[in-house]
Amino acid sequence: MNQAFQPFTPQARTLMGPGPSDVHPRVLKALGQTTIGHLDPQFVQLMDHVKTGLQYALKTQNPLTMAISAPGSAGMEACFVNLIEPGDKVIVCQNGVFGGRMRENVLRCGGQAIMIEDPWGQPTDIQKVADALQQHPDAKALAFVHAETSTGVRNDAKALCALAKQFDCLTIVDAVTSLGGIELAVDDWQIDALYSGTQKCLSCVPGLSPVTFSQAAIDTIKQRKHPVQSWFLDMDLVMGYWGEGAKRAYHHTAPVNSIYALHESLCILHEEGLENAWQRHQTLHNALKQGLEGLGLSLLVDEQYRLPQLNSVVIPDGVDDALVRSRLLNEFNLEIGAGLGALAGKIWRIGLMGYACRQDNIDYCLDALGKVLNR
Amino acid sequence: MNQAFQPFTPQARTLMGPGPSDVHPRVLKALGQTTIGHLDPQFVQLMDHVKTGLQYALKTQNPLTMAISAPGSAGMEACFVNLIEPGDKVIVCQNGVFGGRMRENVLRCGGQAIMIEDPWGQPTDIQKVADALQQHPDAKALAFVHAETSTGVRNDAKALCALAKQFDCLTIVDAVTSLGGIELAVDDWQIDALYSGTQKCLSCVPGLSPVTFSQAAIDTIKQRKHPVQSWFLDMDLVMGYWGEGAKRAYHHTAPVNSIYALHESLCILHEEGLENAWQRHQTLHNALKQGLEGLGLSLLVDEQYRLPQLNSVVIPDGVDDALVRSRLLNEFNLEIGAGLGALAGKIWRIGLMGYACRQDNIDYCLDALGKVLNR
Lengths: 375, 375
Known about the structure:
Number of domains of chain A: 2
CATH superfamily of the largest domain in chain A: Type I PLP-dependent aspartate aminotransferase-like (Major domain)
Mean pLDDT of chain A: 96
Shape of chain A: globular
CATH architecture of the largest domain in chain A: 3-Layer(aba) Sandwich
CATH class of the largest domain in chain A: Alpha Beta
CATH topology of the largest domain in chain A: Aspartate Aminotransferase, domain 2
Low-confidence stretches of chain A: none
Order of helices and strands of chain A: EHHEHEHEHEEEHEHEEHHHHEHEEEH
Oligomer: homodimer
């Protein structure tokens, strides 16, 4: 019993796994500031600033842009429970863990999921999606993952959305790992509903999920025949809380300090410039790749659709996956990620996200890997 | 645009509203510590410690005791979506805002809500509940709010649970404002599902919802005929993440830093002693009450079922509610709460919760109120 009530002081780590990634020191400082009320005029104004910051990061003018008060999985659920009603058909692309989770969400909304499956490590095949849209003209939405954190693959969000729009289909996009790390343009690409996370390329603490909804998405929500099955995630109610000006109907108590942190991370992104941040991820990915090749290691995913911020490294034959990761953690305080599902034991996932995406981190990681692998 | 990207430094407030309440400085310090991975062995151990701490605070041995990674409204939803299936009948007691929210949850689960309504400011009438249980022997659960934050009323949780058990009914209890402030004994009272919040008498930041489920509740979940409508709140999946030892199946990314904060707040509660904390709330409530009476102000709720941690003060005739609150905030940096719903404009809600429940806060509040009211 007593051990449970000892003060907890975490041993610092270098976070180069699939997330959370290293949190910027300025973000931690903002996080620990004095808590104010969630209806305090100061906080209401901060919510407006966070909205502006998210609109900047997402390249959108959508008024319905905000942070859900819960992690990315809840953001995913917010998109599905608001847009999908019983009987609705959704085309879901799966080429990793998170497409499967989208399917689960469709089913739990009483919807029908038309699955487009591609091998893990490969991108979604656009032709297969075109065929499915042709075959299911009544599909309400196309759902896919922009940056598949479980494999390191970039799906072609721009092309997938353009295709969906030809068929008058709503688009639901998982941008948990893409936001802030690679090009993403909600309005230009005509994304209707998008959710992300704070603990990846925004260098913020985990626990919030930025979301945005287009006018078409809002119209769809307003025309629902059934109430949204989640009270907590009902955007019609959440809108009243995050909405314009004086309205601010009490819905739930926002995680005030986490919003401080998100705001600071958006300030940092704005200072660097969104396009510069994308470029930094690409440039440093190239540096990491060269270093890994120097150690005789190769990447799983083809360059053409490889994510710079999530590097799937093929584990060489005869190397003990778990032992390497545990030595990196225990001897170097360095966290890298394991493979998931079909890729468990076959890859490591090295994240280069946000503040963790720095040359000194790359040098440190390559040095540690070299020592542990005796290369 | 540019204003949105200016650093945010909150003006400190004294938080004596309905929550969030003043956060303990040690909790803020814990919150701002370096972020580690949510699967890091250090963090996995911390989750165990938080579970132990919550078991202590809730007086329960329930193994399924944890913090939902979202605010109290999500904790409420977690209780309902896991236990209630389409067609289930739930007796819901309403004598304030939060009973109404429970009803919403029942309906969104496809259940039927049998409402027991009592006036705001009065406790739930036990006889009416007994009659309803008699009349609806097929009711699956009795749901009620222990401490009604919107009115300052304590419902008799012990008696309500004992009654429900006579009719073999599950009990679902809202303990958002009661946990840490007044007597609460999950096992002794035979509570089956309970949710709380961190931003009230635990003096922690908002954003997490402690929950606990009895064995009977777990059995009910395991015997469900329909999948839980929420993926994020599906306890069967969440159990795998918060469960014993090595399992720890990846479900979502826990809000790591908020868990640091919750742990520290549980350490502080344990240092003081749970019963001592209850006593402090009662003693200081008496001090506040005396002071308010000295200013000619009276409390809405009868002493017999009045909450010490949430004091509903009747606004005297001719006093401008909004002006008083805004002067307290702007001139004294003191936040007190407005009335909600039927009590809007009729009461102020003065919170004495957790770290905010101190003699110096009471003195400060009485002094400020006296000045603003010219008394």
